[in-house]
């Protein structure tokens, strides 16, 4: 077993050698914890950001590539761009519905035998083919359809990700864990409060904005605990037509277990995604990259239904997270 351990560690180091030591996703002391799993059970490597601030990772399609895929924890299935499909000779074989935050649209489906991140097989199926600004010039979206039984770790400080089988995943020392529940087989829902109002929350790394549903806005109005933020309308791109976000709230305090976030800006609307996930009547919050990127990293365990946050400045008791700065808005700590 010792020889096997050296082989696995050597493979991991080769994956990570493309980056400087300060940007390693798996630090040397943590590699020892991975001696009992094979290289087909873990992959880690560098990432970059797209022009909207979303994480982009190299993904192979049908053994070709790697290609640039946006890591999207809010997407229940992966997507390929029209340009990539045409480049690879993937011919549409039917059509299907694509659900986004803002609505549902029809898209051609192409048959993909396999998606891989490193040696990890992330599944293959009939995937939607999309084009337009939603992909921000990237080759596709990496959804959570290949994450069953695995843990996805995104390190914003070191610009890398790690995908590993949950059963053999290393402990995340110094990270704050929030327990959740699995919805629809792939969505990890976590519970928290906004100014003591119970709220269902989920992490969406495919959205560059944080969003709230109408039910949360109404509950906060009853308590007069959130104020509207005057801001210029923002144009958001979707799988269908672009939409305009006009109404924003400042959420003075958001609590997730031991984590406290202050002055979070959330755009409010009757968004389709809340209806799709049966979260119309209960207050709900979609945490986008504007908030998530304020942490040092996040990890979602799709086997144990837990979300982990690595915070920048944890205090002696509990944890506090700064919200994104906005014009005219002071972020509290």
Protein model, in words:
There is one protein chain. The chain is globular and about 55 Å long. Strands 2, 3, 4, 5, 6, 7, 8, 9, 10 and 11 form a 10-stranded mixed β-sheet that branches. Strands 15-16-23-17-22-21 form a 6-stranded mixed beta barrel. Strands 19-20 form a two-stranded antiparallel ribbon. The protein contains 6 helices and 26 strands. Strand 14 (176-183) and strand 15 form a beta hairpin. Residues 1-23, 235-240, 314-320 and 322-333 have low confidence and may be disordered. It is mainly beta and 333 residues long. The chain folds into 2 domains: 2-168, Acid Proteases (Cathepsin D, subunit A, domain 1); 176-322, Acid Proteases (Cathepsin D, subunit A, domain 1, Beta Barrel). The longest helix is centred in the first third of the chain and has 15 residues, at 2-16. The protein has helices at 2-16, 28-31, 82-88, 214-223, 272-276, 289-292, and strands at residues 42-46, 48-49, 55-61, 64-71, 79-81, 92-99, 104-111, 115-117, 120-121, 126-130, 140-142, 150-155, 160-165, 176-183, 187-194, 197-203, 211-212, 227-229, 234-236, 243-245, 248-256, 259-268, 284-287, 297-301, 306-310, 319-322. Helix content is 14%, strand content 41%.
Summed up:
The chain has 333 residues and is mainly beta. It has helices spanning 2-16, 28-31, 82-88, 214-223, 272-276, 289-292; strands spanning 42-46, 48-49, 55-61, 64-71, 79-81, 92-99, 104-111, 115-117, 120-121, 126-130, 140-142, 150-155, 160-165, 176-183, 187-194, 197-203, 211-212, 227-229, 234-236, 243-245, 248-256, 259-268, 284-287, 297-301, 306-310, 319-322.
